[in-house]
Design brief:
alpha+beta, DNA Primase, Chain A, five-stranded antiparallel sheet, four-stranded antiparallel sheet, 9 helices, globular
């Protein structure tokens, strides 16, 4: 844990315009700054940043808050991870106290989900490039839309098979727990004991990374017309 004096120093040092500008292109409008909201598909700048109040706010989706809240949401960090991120940015020394058992469990859960997301990314990339369906459907889709092979590999684009549980079965065989498959949103399912279903089946996949490179989520686009099914599905 971080002592309250250090937390106060971090809160005083963190300037919302500087923090948000690391992730969002801003332009000045009057006393504030505006930009495209990073938390939803924003075509008209609706994300407002107030230097005077030291907060940000999207007037379309409602997301926003202090510099700490912004980093937590954007980088999928815990409160303490965001504090350490900002402390490093503003060159503030952090002396940590011992974590409680509950805090250790929460940190362990987060790391387990990051590891599972990385496994999923690698699985979907391999499926795209090596599985007959992945090459015929997913890779063809990307190439038809002008994606060069180097771009496909650079951004780690992938494909999830149409089979309803292909990924879930392989992930569990590899030792990943059902609970984490559900928590990450990679799989859906009902009661314990019932088979899991792949959330992204039959979709090309775009991994979402934090600034530090961790995979925190996926966006998937379905390639066939299916009634009552959205074209795009994102991790919850």
């Amino acid at each position: 844990m971080i002592d309250q004096v250090t937390i106060g120093r971090i809160q005083d040092a963190a300037q919302i315009v500087e923090v948000v500008s690391d992730f969002v292109t801003l332009r000045k409008r009057g006393a504030n700054y505006i930009g495209l909201c990073p938390f939803h598909e924003d075509r008209n700048p609706s994300f407002s940043v107030s230097p005077a109040k030291n907060i940000c706010k999207c007037f379309a989706c409602g997301e926003g808050g202090t510099p700490i809240h912004f980093v937590m949401k954007h980088e999928q960090m815990t409160y303490y991870e965001a504090l350490k991120y900002l402390a490093k940015k503003y060159h503030i020394e952090v002396v940590e106290k011992e974590f409680t058992d509950e805090e250790r469990r929460a940190q362990s859960d987060r790391e387990s989900m990051f590891i599972l997301n990385e496994y999923a990314r690698d699985y979907f990339v391999k499926t795209l490039h090596e599985h007959p369906e992945g090459k015929a459907v997913g890779l063809s889709y990307f190439r038809e839309r002008g994606f060069r092979d180097d771009i496909i590999k650079k951004f780690q684009l992938g494909y999830s098979l149409e089979q309803r549980d292909a990924f879930s079965v392989e992930a569990q065989k590899a030792g990943y727990q059902r609970d984490y498959l559900l928590k990450t949103g990679l799989s859906t399912g009902g009661e314990e004991g019932r088979p899991l279903i792949d959330r992204f089946r039959g979709r090309v996949l775009f991994p979402v990374h934090t600034l530090s490179g961790k995979v925190v989520a996926f966006g998937g686009r379905i390639l066939k017309k299916v009634e009552n099914t959205g074209k795009y599905v994102n991790s919850p």
